[in-house]
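Regression check, pyridoxal-5'-phosphate case 441:
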Amino acid sequence: MRDEIPFTLQYTDVPSAWYNAVDDLPVPVPHLLDPITREAVKRADLETIFPRGVVEEMAALQRWIDIPEPIRRLYRRWRPTPLFRAHRLEQALDTPARLYFKYEGVSPTGSHKLNTAVVQAFHARNQGCRGMTTETGAGQWGSALALACRWFGLECHVYMVRVSYNQKPYRRVLMDAYGATVDPSPSGKTAVGQALLRGDPDHPGSLGVAVAEAVEEAVESGGPWSFGLGSVLPVVLTHQSVIGLEAMKQMELTGDEPDVLVGCVGGGSNWGGFVLPFMRGRWGGGPRVIAAEPAACPSLTGGRYEYDTADSAGLTPLLKMYTLGRDFVPPPIHAGGLRYHGMAPQVSALYAAGLIEAVPVPQLEVFTAATQFARTEGIVPAPESAHAVAVTLREAARCRQEGTRRVIVTNISGHGLFDLSAYGDFLAGRLPDLSTPSSSS
Ligand SMILES: Cc1ncc(COP(=O)(O)O)c(C=O)c1O
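Current build output:
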């Protein structure tokens, strides 16, 4: 096998600044609005929910935002993350395409989520918070914030979407191990959760509901607790830009130029962090960019472009985004991190302008692709990341049919070692396809 070596950077190559793409995009990204007045949201209101330092970064207009040194030092524990050429996968697919993947699963908690979790916990600690509340789907974000809070001496309370809480007990144990408190959402601990449980004691939950519960707790605390959000906010995509900035340097080492960039989208943070740095100054002429989403929760391909809140109860600011509606309860697909009704404003604005592509993928195709990736490249991708793998496989097949030798670069946002029961069900033929938003019933 030709070079098995990853395209490795030095720890000194960890970026010193995040890339804030908002003013570089060829389309304007509409501002966040207050959910009651529908006027531009005030900083003071945002500070009742999020840490002040995060709100300051949200307001930043400059293209480059210096990464505070304590964060850069922490990043060096797992960054730069590797980029590989997928020779074995190419061979198995008999494709002339050249396939590369950036791998975020090497972080201590197993995904890209730690890239922003440490920033949010850092700011919460700096303003003297006692702890952070948050939501989580499959548990990747919850475990990242649990560890980040632990590193900064904060408590952490996680509302975990009930269906994932039951499907993925070991992610829950991981959060417990880091010292966080985890409740299934809807829970009986908040007004939002109590109301939903009265209507349906077996409510499966959704990320929108879990966000509402976590925001309610933080706001009601009146200050000592702040809320952390793992995706959708423009600033989270900015924090995740370390992925793309490193991948660009690594692609220079390969001598290849990307023709296609692929990532999965839940709220859009790993995709945005990966793609936006590559596309700076190249919109309209650069590589094709593809967002892979679940067919069962197709925010981009099945949603409407309008203002909606990030949570189900209307507590967060309104974001202009593709949304399935904040009340949408997705079928219980295993990619819990993609079971989200909305999409980051940058991703939404680009899709509305026809500058990016979106592809919905059904669950069985996702796990078929994931298994092929595991058997060739050795990495068991998270079910979320496996959506990107599935689209990559479709693109590689297209190259074979057309006889074209495109360079396809894919972001693998995390590993799936806590999702092995889902893999087990798939391998035993027990996994339903859940290929449409209503196919769970
Ligand atoms: C591994 C992994 N990938 C992707 C996502 C989707 O989030 P985002 O679109 O913000 O990257 C999640 C969310 O939990 C995740 O855990």
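Comparison notes: The pocket of pyridoxal-5'-phosphate is lined by residues 111, 113, 137-138, 140-141, 231, 264-271, 337-338, 382, 384-385, 413-414 (CB under 6 Å). The chain has a mean pLDDT of 95. No diff flagged against the previous build.
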